[in-house]
Structures are given as C-alpha cells and as structure tokens.
Amino acid sequence: MLDLLKVLVLCHTCRVDWKDDRVSTSGSGPSDGFEYEYQASSPDEKALVEACRRSVRDVEVCRRSVLDVEACRRSVRDVEACRRSVCDVEACRRSVCDVEACRRSVCDMEACRRSVCDVEACRRSVRDVEACHRSVCDVEACHRSVRDVEACRRSVCDVEACRRSVRDVEACRRSVCDVEACRRSVCNVEACRRSVRDVEA
Question: What's the predicted TM-score (pTM) here?
Fold first, then answer.
C-alpha cells in the first residue's frame, strides 16, 4: 500500500509552502506535520499528496508505536527476568534456610549422640554401682563368715574346756574310788587289828 501511494505521488508535481508564511529561522518548521500547504495544478494531485503525507505520518506513528511495543516487550522481558531472579533469590534463600535447618538437624543429631553416650556412661556407672554393691555384700558375707569362724573357734575352745572338765571329773571320780578303796583298806586293817586283839584275848 505504501509503495502504491509513493508511485501515485511521484507521478505528480506539487509545490510546498509554509502556512501563513511561517518559516523557521533554523531551517525547520513546526513538528506537528500539518504546517505545510501543498500547491498543485489539480485538487486530485493535492489530495493524493495530502493522503500520502498523512499515511507516512501514520506509518511513522505506527513505527514508533511498534518501537514502543518492542521496548515494552523488552521491559516485560526484563521484568520477567527480574521476577525469575527474584524467584531464584527466593529459592536461594529457601535453600539457605534448608541448609540452616540441615545444620540444626546435624547439631540435634550430635546432641542426641552425646545424650546416648551419656546414657551409656550412666548405664556403665549403674553397672559399676551394682558391682560395688555386690562387692560390699561379699565383704559383708566375708565379715559374717569371719564372725562365724570366730564363734566356731570359740566353740572349739569351749568343747576343749568341756573335754578337759570331763577329764578332771573322771580324775576326781577315780580319786574318789581310790579314797573309797583306801577307806575299805582302813576298815580291813581295823578288822584285822580287832582280830588280832581277839586272838590275843
């Protein structure tokens, strides 16, 4: 469409004048696009040139809009990239939180292991206390055995004294028998003396 307009316009001759004889001192007029006035031999030629001028201006506006859209699209891409970066940062923060949680879990496991070691040491201490208690019981039993041995020794001594007493009683009984025999001998002597007297008489 633009090429067709170009061909139609180029086939005509128009003279361009400033409206109201406004000529820019710097060589350039106003920038609204409607400051020019075309002079042509026929209204058709002028209309074609005017249409072309307006189309070019619309195309320029459209191009600028496209550029703005492209810039907006790039901005959207940048925003998307920024959002992804934020998501990555969030994921990184979560990863750091996970690492921190993992470190805390490791610390908890270490504390648990230490607690298990303490429980094991406590159990060993209980075993040692049990062994010590058994040793004390053994010492008590030994002490009681010593007491029993001492009592047995005393009993043996008492038996030995009793045996000696029995021996002394036996000796005393024998002495009594000897005294009885002596008394009988004396009686026999007395009877013999009396017999002698009777014989003498």
Answer: 0.28
